[in-house]
């Protein structure tokens, strides 16, 4: 069956044309069918097949091998540890979460790729309005109103460099607290390194803060020198040291949640009798701390360079009565402490060796012993080498360094728990000075307490008159 092309005069075959049309339609139908079967259900998986920047693919949770959806990985033997020392070592996004690959690598999550919801934008605008109102009130001398408004702005936008700077100006000019002001300027520059007001004001306050810190350390060493002149046979001093021993055990286990009172703690240590209504674990925590302190006093305080085995020996005594299997052993599983994910178990040993290499280095030993003790405490908690008992071991390491330098052990009172954790958190955000100041103030108060006891107490009355060192502001 043929037809004649009117313009060209060539015949056209309707049969061949029809066959080609059928074949093309079949191929198109087959292609659509295959695409529908294999298309991913999640639209982001389609996007992941394109050549996107690595940061974009991380935000979309793209896999490197296939765009097919992946099931959540099973944790297996992972421990989820609720340790009282909450560290937030990485920069958090707006929701307080870390991306999965950043957890593994231990890198910070850049704020530039963080999604900002509409509510956050509205909060920022409100914070800016509050900021302007606070500045006007401060300039007009209405300090109470300015304080209320700027604190409200801090709650709305605690990471806004303008808000941080204005809060620093307020505490510097109204409260005359240059230490806190400098800290606010430093935080503001952390979010905007070129903030002009923060740059100028930090340049002015930083030398003042350094002078304050140096004077504090000088005062500590003046008291330390006086303390060393007190005869060790002084009965009042001996009673004060004995009472301090019980208080140290009580406070350091209380920081971990132990509910024993000071009287009950002393009873367990002196009589080894059971306290009714208290758990076996709480009894064993006290006995373990007693064993660790005795080990420090009788052995480690006299050694030179510390080794990994020394740290493990401390931990073996701290946790030996509670968990004999884990005591003295570096963790072999990943742990999670709140929103903080410590280093992987495969890196714990190497991190500990690096810390000890730093601690035994000649240049490190030139650091003021009070500062060094605080830094060593922080580094051990940062590594988190054990499944449990990291805080207690870190506080013992801190006091070991102080004792080797001739200082008495420092007690971190349970009443200062929130300040203790806040200073550790600030250290993880990049500023170690608040934590060093915290330990330095406790050291100063401890020395003053012993000096007062030795000069004013009678031997019989010392156990009643020595009070727990508190933070002096």
Structural topology:
Blueprint: E1 2-4, E2 11-13, H1 14-38, H2 43-47, H3 54-59, E3 79-81, H4 100-105, H5 118-139, H6 143-156, H7 161-173, H8 178-191, H9 196-228, H10 235-254, H11 262-271, H12 280-298, H13 308-319, E4 335-337, H14 345-360, H15 369-383, H16 390-404, H17 417-428, H18 433-456, H19 462-465
Parallel strand pairs: 3-4
Antiparallel strand pairs: 1-2
Helix pairs in contact: 5-6, 5-7, 6-7, 7-8, 8-9, 9-18, 10-11, 10-12, 10-18, 12-13, 13-16, 14-15, 15-16, 15-18, 17-18
Active site: 384
Keywords: ATP-binding, Membrane, Nucleotide-binding, Nucleotidyltransferase, Repeat, TPR repeat, Transferase, Transmembrane, Transmembrane helix
Protein name: protein adenylyltransferase
Structural class: mainly alpha
| Assigned CATH class of the largest domain | Mainly Alpha
SSE order, as H and E? Answer: EEHHHEHHHHHHHHHHEHHHHHH
| CATH-defined superfamily of the largest domain | Fido-like domain
The percentage helix is: 55-70%
Q: Helical segment tally?
A: 19
Described by the principal axes of the CA atoms, the overall outline is globular
Number of structural units classed as domains? 3
Spans of at least 5 consecutive residues with low confidence? 1-14, 33-119, 457-473
Biggest β-sheet strands, sense, barrel:
2 strands, antiparallel
Mean pLDDT: 77
Binned strand content = under 5%
End-to-end span in angstroms?
A: 107 Å
């Amino acid at each position: 069956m043929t037809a004649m092309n009117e313009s060209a005069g060539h015949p056209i075959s309707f049969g061949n044309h029809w066959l080609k049309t059928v074949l093309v339609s079949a191929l198109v139908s087959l292609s659509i069918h295959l695409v529908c079967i294999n298309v991913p259900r999640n639209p982001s998986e389609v996007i992941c097949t394109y050549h996107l920047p690595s940061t974009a693919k991380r935000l979309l949770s793209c896999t490197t091998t296939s765009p097919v959806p992946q099931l959540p990985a099973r944790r297996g033997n992972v421990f989820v540890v609720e340790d009282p020392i909450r560290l937030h070592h990485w920069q958090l996004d707006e929701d307080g979460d870390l991306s999965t690959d950043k957890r593994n690598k231990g890198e910070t999550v850049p704020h530039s790729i963080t999604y900002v919801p509409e509510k956050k934008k509205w909060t920022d605008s409100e914070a800016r309005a509050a900021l302007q109102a606070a500045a006007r009130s401060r300039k007009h001398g209405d300090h109470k109103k300015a304080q209320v408004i700027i604190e409200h702005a801090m709650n709305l936008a605690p990471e806004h460099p303008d808000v941080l700077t204005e809060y620093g100006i307020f505490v510097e000019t109204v409260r005359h607290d240059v230490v806190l002001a400098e800290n606010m300027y430093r935080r503001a520059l952390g979010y905007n390194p070129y903030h002009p007001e923060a740059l100028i004001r930090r340049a002015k306050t930083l030398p003042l803060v350094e002078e304050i810190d140096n004077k504090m350390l000088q005062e500590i060493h003046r008291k330390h020198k006086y303390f060393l002149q007190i005869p060790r046979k002084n009965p009042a001093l001996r009673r004060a040291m004995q009472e301090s021993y019980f208080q140290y055990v009580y406070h350091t286990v209380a920081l971990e949640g132990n509910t024993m009172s000071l009287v009950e703690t002393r009873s367990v240590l002196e009589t080894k009798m059971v306290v009714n209504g208290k758990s076996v674990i709480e009894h064993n925590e006290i006995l373990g701390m007693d064993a660790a302190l005795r080990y420090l006093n009788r052995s480690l305080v006299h050694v030179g360079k510390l080794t990994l085995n020394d740290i493990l020996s401390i931990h073996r005594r701290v946790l030996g009565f509670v968990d004999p299997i884990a005591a003295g052993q570096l963790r072999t599983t990943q742990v999670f402490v709140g929103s903080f994910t410590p280093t992987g178990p495969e890196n714990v040993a190497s991190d500990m060796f690096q810390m000890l290499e730093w601690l035994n280095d000649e240049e490190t030993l030139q650091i003021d012993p009070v500062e060094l003790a605080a830094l060593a405490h922080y580094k051990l908690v940062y590594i988190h080498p054990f499944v449990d008992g990291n805080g207690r071991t870190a506080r013992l390491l801190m006091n070991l360094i102080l004792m080797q330098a001739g200082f008495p052990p420092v007690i971190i009172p349970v009443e200062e728990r929130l300040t203790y954790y806040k200073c550790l958190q600030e250290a993880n955000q990049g500023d170690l000075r608040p934590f060093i100041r915290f330990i330095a103030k406790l050291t100063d108060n401890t020395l003053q307490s012993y000096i007062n006891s030795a000069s004013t107490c009678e031997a019989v009355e010392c156990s009643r008159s020595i009070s727990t060192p508190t933070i002096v502001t």
